[in-house]
Amino acid sequence: MYKAIITVRLRPSILDPEGKAIEQALQSLDFSALSGLRVGKYIEMNVEATERDVAEQMVDAACGKLLANPVMEDYSYELHEA
Amino acid sequence: MYKAIITVRLRPSILDPEGKAIEQALQSLDFSALSGLRVGKYIEMNVEATERDVAEQMVDAACGKLLANPVMEDYSYELHEA
After folding, report:
1. pTM of the model
2. What is the ipTM of this complex?
3. Largest Cα–Cα distance in chain A?
4. Is domain A2-81 annotated with CATH 2.60.260.20?
5. In sequence order, what are the beta bridge partners of B73?
């Protein structure tokens, strides 16, 4: 079994209103040294597979089909043996 | 300057309805080998500081005050020199 850690991020060219709102909230709390904040998703899940490349294929397919929007988002993942 | 990569996750004891919904959607797409899916936030931002421990303190305070809900969520972060 593997544990997959996936991060899904908006592409750099896509506006991130959620990140902007959080950044403004930080500014109003006097965190003026923090900037360029962007928010993405962090997903973890278990993958039932005996071979690493099978697990990788499965996670990649799940990201491409459901977890990320390929038009607006990039994803990356790590697999850890569990 | 540093780049901070923050992950905010629900504590293990807290139910994650969003993760559950995504997991069910994966099951219905025939990804039956994927389980235990949980969703968190991935946040990246720039930290304007010359010393690492100053940057660390700032990120830690921002997480505790705004980015994470200390009752329901755990956070962790990495700092990379940029």
Report:
1. 0.91
2. 0.90
3. 50
4. no
5. B10
